[in-house]
Amino acid sequence: MSSLGCQTKPPSFFTYHATLLSQNLSPPALKPVESKVMVHINSVRHTSVHKSSRRRVQHQLEEPTESSILLSSNEQSGTAGVFKPDDIKIRDRPRRTLVLLFAIVFLQVCGEQLIEAPRTRIVESIFCYRFYEKYDPSKILHGRDTVAAGAVNGVDESWCKVDAIQSDMANLASYQQIFDSLMSLLLALPFGMAADKFGRKPFLISGFVSSLARWVWYEYVCWFWQQQSIYWTLLSSLNGLFAGSTTVLYNLIFVVVSDVTPQEEQTNAFFRLGAASLFPLLLIPPLSAWSMRVSPWLPSSAGLLFLLVALFLAMFVPETLKNQEHDPHEAQDIINTSPACNECLMETGTEYPQTQPCTPNREQITDDSSVYEDSWLQQTKNFVFKYWTLMIILLPYTEHLLISGTSQLQVQFLSRRLGFTISQATLFFSLRAGCSILLFLVVLPRLSTYMTREQRWSTQVKDLYLARVSIFLQAAGWTGTGMATNTLFVAVSMTVSTLGSGTALFLRSLAASLVPSSRLATLFSVISVIDIVGSMLGAPILAAAFGWGMRHGTFWVGMPFDLIGLWSVICGGLLFTVKTH
Fold this sequence. Notes:
Number of strands: 3
CATH topology of the largest domain: Growth Hormone, Chain: A
Structural class: mainly alpha
Low-confidence stretches: 1-91, 325-373
Number of helices: 22
Distance between the termini: 15 Å
Helix content: 55-70%
Order of helices and strands: EHHHHHHHHHHHHEHHHHHHHHHHE
CATH architecture of the largest domain: Up-down Bundle
Shape: globular
Strand order of the largest sheet: 1-2-3
Radius of gyration: 29 Å
CATH superfamily of the largest domain: MFS general substrate transporter like domains
Largest sheet: 3 strands, antiparallel
């Protein structure tokens, strides 16, 4: 049975021993360094009593302070003093690391967005040119000797919308998604475990390198399309051999953010990271569309430049695993057994007695270094299935990536139900992105801060309650979208579903507080696997539901979104089995 520990700030070493001395109590056995400090304190007290009164003022001035005691103890142990001017810079490093990560994510998503639309157009041009070269050469505007790279000016775009060409494009995209997903499923957990053992930075750098190499290869194949098949682009999925895929890369970024952020600030840091990934969705699409009028290679090449800059900045991200090494004696120094501690305990089912120790956060699951000797499959089983509280918390991730991949389905739904054009339907995506940015930057951070600072809620309880509210808002929004019959109803329903988009971030923060910091990469790799499995299993179900809806009338076209709402209700109901006391 796993429990979520409360957040209690242990007293400082000097406050702790001062309390014992005032109550005539003996302190417990001290560590070697602490023993030296206490000996030093006693010796100073003893000598000061026997000094003459005429030197009492001088001895008061020389009476050791907390800094001097620490300095003396450090000198005895051969280390430097505690405080240095550089300590201010050290305290600022986590903040600088966060800002650097936000900038990297922004540049990375900008690069991917700049590449995405031009890539689709270039692939369409290649399929289109080869189709009409075979079936109707009269549509070809330039021969192979004069056609531009990627055949972008070979055939007028209006002729490229026939079913055969679009079907070939859909098949290529589906194969690409399958290979990408397989790489993630096979390698996400091994990469996560390796990042927990060897460090975050090597795998972070390899992730950005492989992401850049993936798109360089893709554009290379498209540029030299006359010498090779467009299906050679599928080899870009091999980038997963070096990083586990883009999904794993972004999960590793979340790990680094967790490493450098205190738990009470972790959720807000996740919100800012989410906002950094959403801003490009507002800024880049119109810029990409405008530059594509000149050539799709212009934004595509600019995207590679953005990815290169993101890789360059990633070189400056410090290693954060060493900051999270756990001292096995840390939890044994001071244990709070007061009844007040139990007010912030959270568990599933069993009530703990009032004497239940309140262990530090992220140490609820014992971090046994020998676990790495087991196979990764056995380790995963021990890591997840033994702690079924985690299973409940991670279950909603089965629809996280699935919802993100329903954009094409939403366009088809709006076109069929309300008669929108594709350009009109995409306006709703801008509406959702704008609402999400406002939610992540303003609403949720302020609400989160209010609950923890003003209402004194523990971070874990706050995350759990907000996750419950968010997932039911998500359920209401998607169900309303599926049942909407007019534009206003659709807009309101999509806005409500957006209000629930913080569910995944709340649950990520909550899950991270349940495991040792040295296991965060493994945890987030499990999340990425759940994401991928949910998407692979859910996408065919939603597609089948949409087809069933079209066969049974316009009203049932929204059935896929009703299913998403139903699954959200089920996951939200299970979250209520995680109880607070």
